Amino acid sequence: MTQVAVQNFQAKRVLSVLVADDSPIIQTILLRILTNLGHKVVMVGNGLEAVGAVRSKDFDVVVMDMHMPEMDGATATRSIRGTPTDIAFTPIIACSVDNERDHVESFFEAGVNAYMEKPIDTEVLLQTIDEVLDEKIHELIMDGDRTANALRQETSDSLVDESDGDIDAFLDTLKSIE
């Protein structure tokens, strides 16, 4: 069993991150990546819970699935942006397997700051967080004789490797959705 390749990164500071996703598998992946870097993570399973969480606690960034039950990510984003307080400016990263141009544009029209395609890639996630916060928080670290390119390739190749065949099959399905 290989762990998420987050050991190749370090965070300069701890972030408070809200993850809004209805998939327990995606929640687990994001939780592992972010907590292994020392970040504080709150998980919710739909847009209504995301709006409530943002209204009750300050977050540095929100990673929001766009297709959730009860309230989708775009509607939740519009609700957060419509709040007459500073929480309206909380950076939101849309996260979805849906990469059709019109749909991605609608995510930005709803008010997201960035879009990230599933399956989750550790390096892309951390770069996207850095971009929306306009700060270099996550650094790729060197390990012995390995080069940065080798570490990047290893990170991309080992998004998640679980011993459970159902999770592997699910991740393969996500990778094949284009």
List keywords for this structure.
5-stranded parallel beta sheet, two-stranded antiparallel ribbon, 7 helices, 43% helix, globular
How is this structure best described in words?
The chain is an alpha/beta fold and 178 residues long. The chain has one domain: 3-Layer(aba) Sandwich (Rossmann fold). The protein has seven helices and seven strands, in the order E-E-H-E-H-E-H-E-H-E-H-E-H-H. The chain has helices spanning 24-36, 47-56, 73-81, 101-110, 122-133, 148-157, 165-176; strands at 9-11, 16-20, 40-44, 61-65, 92-96, 114-117, 138-140. The strands form two sheets. It has a five-stranded parallel beta sheet with strand order 3-2-4-5-6, with helices on both faces. It has a two-stranded antiparallel ribbon with strand order 1-7.
Helices and strands, with pairings:
Layout: E1 9-11, E2 16-20, H1 24-36, E3 40-44, H2 47-56, E4 61-65, H3 73-81, E5 92-96, H4 101-110, E6 114-117, H5 122-133, E7 138-140, H6 148-157, H7 165-176
Parallel strand pairs: 2-3, 2-4, 4-5, 5-6
Antiparallel strand pairs: 1-7
Helix pairs in contact: 2-3
